[in-house]
Each structure stands twice: as structure tokens, then as C-alpha cells.
Amino acid sequence: MFLSIFDVFKIGVGPSSSHTVGPMVAAARFLDLLREGREVVPGAGTLARLGCTLHGSLAFTGKGHATDRAVTLGFAGFTPAEYDRGTADLALEEIEKRGTVSPAGLGDLRYRQSVDLRFDYDESLPLHANGMVLSAYDSSGNLYARETYYSTGGGFVMTARELAGNEVVAEKPTAPYPFKTASQMLVMAAKSGKTIAEMKRENELHHMSRAALESGLEKVWAVMNASINRGLETEGVLPGGLRFRRRAKAIHASLLAEHGTNMAAPHSINDWISVYAIAINEENAAGGQVVTAPTNGAAGVLPAVLRYYLDHVPTARGEMVEPFLLTAAAIGGIIKANASISGAEVGCQGEVGSASAMAAAGLCAVLGGSPQQVENAAEIALEHHLGMTCDPVKGLVQAPCIERNGLGAIKAVSAASLALRGDGVHLVSLDACVETMRQTGVDMSHKYKETSLGGLAVNVPEC
Questions:
Q1: Which CATH number does the domain housing residue 122 bear?
Q2: Do β-strands 47-55 and 117-120 pair in parallel, antiparallel, or remain unpaired?
Q3: What is the reported pTM?
Q4: Burial of 331 by CB count in 10 Å (0-12 exposed, 13-18 middle, 19+ buried)?
Q5: Of 112, 116, 141, 259, whose CB is crowded by the most CB atoms within 10 A?
């Protein structure tokens, strides 16, 4: 199945693509189901009330990830791409006060988050760790309609039937270069003489106009860059109860003070790379607008590396933003198709690890790397995240997530540099590394897969 660059890079809302963006999208899909009159229980009366039950990781870390808030806003008609924090806050207050939501075309429906949204800590749904059941009831309290959704990472949502393969998802037409694996990608590059970015661009243009592609990529980078800038300018304490202080602004000020003086150590470039990533992930943790790259929890890695390229590499050119993003998206698609980008499924190796691989590939490409070197860069970055757990303290995308993005960005730059020093020939292929990540995720205890039941989540005091 063709995966567009705009499936990989989605403009959304923090703090989590799987726990915030996905549930909001699921709620919107359920509203569409109700508008179309599908799945209505025979004999049901007039639609009157909505409800939701969260399971698995969505239950265990749903409070910290604002999953309850996301579902409520989704029921109220909000979408991640057009989210405004101020408007959302006012809407939530009004919903709780009135006890109703008013989605377009469905009228006033009874719903109060504190009553109609339930966290089920006992039962996990069978097909994925991020499961949720959305229900509607008639005026007599009888079931009107029900659907099970799974948030599979990166803002992707599937119904139970879709995920089980019992319902065909409409596939997009075949692309000119339909590679699913890295080995296929390299063969096609060798035969066509095209770069990975050029092949990915041709695939995208098979489904959209050149103007739509260019304007879409311009918007993606604009949102990424704006997230960095907001993070560098904002201070204070992040929400959630950990009293986690924002640090990006202070670090950035310190770096600016050192810049151009003999006070700056050569390794301070790592701090520049880190602070860009930290800035985005502080914005994400605060519920701000970010871009999944490929997830919210890993949203800072790739933009930090791209900002490093543009601001600190002497040969950088602005027109290289597009090939950077196209190359990165190609790698992200390979990882998602053959393993996972969901922390609840494979741990943080699937989030920050995947983001680091994508960023390394993008940087290697714009620095003149061959397709073989680009594949090598992605493999190096991913290989050295294998086994990384997802153990957020208090279920918040703050510790260790924010700093982890900074280190993932540094690894990406190092991986690209190492690959460029070689000829692309290497022992471990990207495909082998991706498969190893998948197997490692299967073997990993659920305690270390975004449930906050193990690791730092149970060894760091919350107060």
C-alpha cells in the first residue's frame, strides 16, 4: 500500500500521536459513521448520547497523554490539523458545564467526560495495545452504534475489522517506484539512476499535483520550524504534575552568548542540535502544534537535524528541504510497512529510533550521499536504538522523552557523517535492522511499551 509523505508527516497536536492525535481522529471517524447511519443497531431509537472506553496503553497512560481530552474534543468536532489550544480549552469547559457536545449534523448529544469516558485497566483489546471502543446510545439508554478503533502509531487509526484484514481498506493506485523494503528501493535506484528523493517525488506526483506536493511540504516545514521557534522562546513549567521545567530557552540563550567567542567548545554543536529537538518536544508536551515525524513523541528529532543543516552547515541550501523530507519519508514508510513506529507496540526504538533513521537518511542525502550511503546512514541510526524501551514517567511525554529526542538527533547526524565516510557497503542491512526491531518489540515486556509499568516510570518519584 502506498504511504504518502503526508501520511508520515501529519500536522497535529501534542503530546502524543498515538494517544492524542489518533483518538481524536477515531472520534471524528465515529461521528462520520453516525452521520452516514452505518452500524446502527436494528430497532434503536433516536441518537442521544456518546461514550468511550479506553483499553491497554490508552488506559494506562491516557491521563498523561491527554487521551480523554482528545476524545472529547474529537466528539465536539475538533481535528488535529486545525487545532487551536485556546478554543479547545473554552470548548472543554462548556462541554463539562452543559453535559453535551454538538457535532455538525448530529445535534446536541449528551456527553460528559467525567462520566461517559472510562479507563479500563483490566482488559486489553486483542489486536493492538492502543485500543478504544466508541459507543452511541439512544434516548432510552439502549445501544445505538458501536465501533472498535486501534491507534497504531503516528496518528494512524484502523477499525478492528480493518486491522484484522476482514475489511478491505481502499488502496491508492500503484506508484511508479513501489518499494516496500530498502533492498527494493536500492535496486530501483540503481536501475533508474534516480535518487531516493526523486523516486519518492515521482510516487507522490502519481497521486497529487506538483503544486499540492510543494505547498504541502512547505507547510510541513513551516510548522516544524515554528514549533522550534516557539519552544526556544517559551519558559515555565510543563503541565502534568511532574513540575518539569522548560529548558530550551535558557540553553539557547547560553549558546547565543557563547557564539563567536572562544568560550564555545567544539562539542557545543551537539547542544545546538539538542536544543532544537528539546524545543519542539517541550512544545509537544505542553499540547502545542507539532508534526508527527513519524510520531509526536519523536517529533523533535528530524526537524532538529534539518534546522542544524540549514543554520550550521556552510554549504546548506534552502531548496534542499524538499529532498530531505522526501528521503526521510521513504525510510519512515519502509519502517512502518515492515515493523512499527508505535511505542506501545515496539517501545521507543520504534519512535525515536525510527525518527533518527529518517533524519540520518535525509541529512546524508542533502549532503550528497548516494542511495547506498543513505540506506547505510538510516541503518546506523536505527541499529543503535534497538531495544530502547518506552517508559514515560507518570505517562507524560516529558521524561525521558524530551532529552531522548536531542540524543536521537545527535545520533542521526553522527550516523549520516559515518555513512558519508564510507562507500555504502556495510554488514547489517537496513531491512535486517528493521526486522530485528520488529522481533525485539514482540519479545519486549509490555511493562516497557508505553504502559508506565516499568523502567524509569516506576523508579523515579512523581513528586
A1: 3.30.1330.90
A2: parallel
A3: 0.92
A4: buried
A5: 116
